[in-house]
Each structure stands twice: as structure tokens, then as C-alpha cells.
């Protein structure tokens, strides 16, 4: 088990427990991130990989919304997903097939959508929770403008703390927002190279 390319070790100060991860990330994101790596291969825990897992589940939640999020009772999982698991529990192969099915479902293929939801449920995901997992910031501004203003102020304060390298304060603000259900996403602006923070409200 590695963290940001280095072996996890208490002596290196990079020892992380599942309990620690769950303070910042939903359990489903942590679980999905694990399944992306074959169980025989070393896992490299990086913030980027967790952000990618979060983004994937967010996209899948949007597709599930368009499908109505309803799993047909008794619907069988896709054969290729089962085949992947039958190949020495090749979860990366099964997930690759889920990506293909999700893409087809997004394109309007309802049969693929049914297989996709059934396959995800077969892998242990609670697909019913994918629907409307988050509210985008622009929707929050309409529904609860006072909350949106408070979040914007704290996000700006966190940005200033990061610029001044006061990472302890930046983490404190992030944790304060997370405790109220606000999910922050940091991404580098390709044009300027600066870190841009967006946010969503978890439900």
C-alpha cells in the first residue's frame, strides 16, 4: 500500500486509516477507489485518484438521474462484468465495462442503462443513492442564497490561507465546510496554473 507514490509507513508520517479517509470522503468513493486496482496489485492512495473516483460517481449519479434511477427488479448484471469478476476478481476489468455501459446509457441506450444499474448493484453499489447525491453550487444559490454566501466567504478565506501556506487553517476551513455537507473540489486552471476551488452540497 502506497500513499502518493511512497510506501505507507508510520515512520514517514503518511499512515492513513479508513477512519481517517471517511472524515473527508464518502465510503462509496473510498470503496470505488479500492476496486479500481486489482487486489493482487499495490494500491497507491493519492488525492488525485480519490478525486477521480468522486468525479466518476458524480457523473454516474447524473446519468442515473436521467434514467430515472430505477433498477428493474431481478435484472441480471452484464455478462462482461460477471466474466471480469470470474477472471481472478478482475475488478478493474469489470469497472471498465461499467464505464462503457454508462457511456451507452448516457447516449440514450435504455437497455445498456438497465444492464449498467444491475451490474453496479451486483458489485455492491447502492445505486438508489446515486440519484441527486449533490446539489450544484448554482442550484444552492437559488434555493438557499444565504448559505451560498457563507460558503463563498469560507472558500475565499481558505484560498487565502492556501496562498499564504497556512495549510492548517485551510484544512480547518475545509473540515468545517465538510461537517455541514459542503464538498470542495480543487482543480488546476490549465490557462493560469492556479488552483480553482468549486463546491457542491452533499445531500
Describe the largest sheet. 3 strands, mixed
Principal-axes geometry comes out as: globular
Rg measurement, Å: 19 Å
| Amino- and carboxy-terminal Cα gap | 31 Å
Strand content: 5-15%
Spatial order of strands in the largest sheet = 2-1-3
The percent range for helix content is 40-55%
Unreliable stretches (pLDDT < 50, length at least 5) are none
**How many beta strands in the DSSP annotation?**
6
Mean pLDDT: 82
Pattern of helices and strands: EEHHEHHHHEHHHEE
The computed structural class is: mainly alpha
Please give the count of helices.
9
Task: List the SSEs and their pairings.
Elements: E1 2-3, E2 6-7, H1 18-22, H2 27-35, E3 44-45, H3 47-67, H4 79-86, H5 91-106, H6 110-122, E4 134-136, H7 137-143, H8 145-163, H9 167-179, E5 182-188, E6 195-202
Parallel strand pairs: 1-3
Antiparallel strand pairs: 1-2, 4-6, 5-6
Helix pairs in contact: 2-3, 4-5, 5-6, 7-8, 8-9
Q: Would you mind describing this structure in some detail?
A:
By secondary structure, the protein is mainly α. Helix content is 55%, strand content 12%. The protein contains nine helices and six strands; from the N terminus they run ββααβααααβαααββ. The strands form two sheets. It has a three-stranded mixed beta sheet. A hairpin with a 2-residue loop joins strand 1 and strand 2 (6-7). Helix 2 packs across helix 3. It starts with a strand and ends with a strand.
Amino acid at each position: 500500500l502506497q500513499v502518493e507514490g511512497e510506501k505507507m509507513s508510520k515512520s514517514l508520517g503518511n499512515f492513513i486509516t479508513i477512519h481517517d479517509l471517511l472524515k473527508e470522503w464518502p465510503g462509496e468513493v473510498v470503496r470505488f477507489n479500492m476496486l479500481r486496482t486489482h487486489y493482487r496489485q499495490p494500491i497507491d492512495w493519492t488525492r488525485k485518484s480519490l478525486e477521480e473516483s468522486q468525479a466518476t460517481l458524480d457523473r454516474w449519479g447524473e446519468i442515473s438521474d436521467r434514467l430515472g434511477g430505477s433498477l428493474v427488479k431481478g435484472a441480471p448484471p452484464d455478462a462482461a462484468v460477471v466474466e471480469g469478476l470470474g477472471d481472478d476478481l478482475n475488478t478493474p476489468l469489470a469497472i471498465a465495462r461499467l464505464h462503457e455501459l454508462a457511456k451507452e446509457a448516457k447516449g440514450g441506450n435504455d437497455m445498456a442503462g438497465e444492464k449498467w444499474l444491475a451490474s453496479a448493484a451486483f458489485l455492491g453499489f447502492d445505486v438508489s443513492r446515486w440519484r441527486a447525491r449533490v446539489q450544484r453550487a448554482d442550484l444552492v444559490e437559488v434555493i438557499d442564497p444565504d448559505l451560498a454566501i457563507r460558503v463563498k466567504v469560507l472558500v475565499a478565506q481558505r484560498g487565502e490561507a492556501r496562498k499564504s501556506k497556512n495549510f492548517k487553517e485551510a484544512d480547518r476551513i475545509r473540515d468545517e465546510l465538510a461537517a455541514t455537507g459542503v464538498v470542495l473540489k480543487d482543480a488546476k486552471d490549465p490557462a493560469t496554473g492556479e488552483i480553482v476551488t468549486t463546491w457542491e452540497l452533499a445531500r
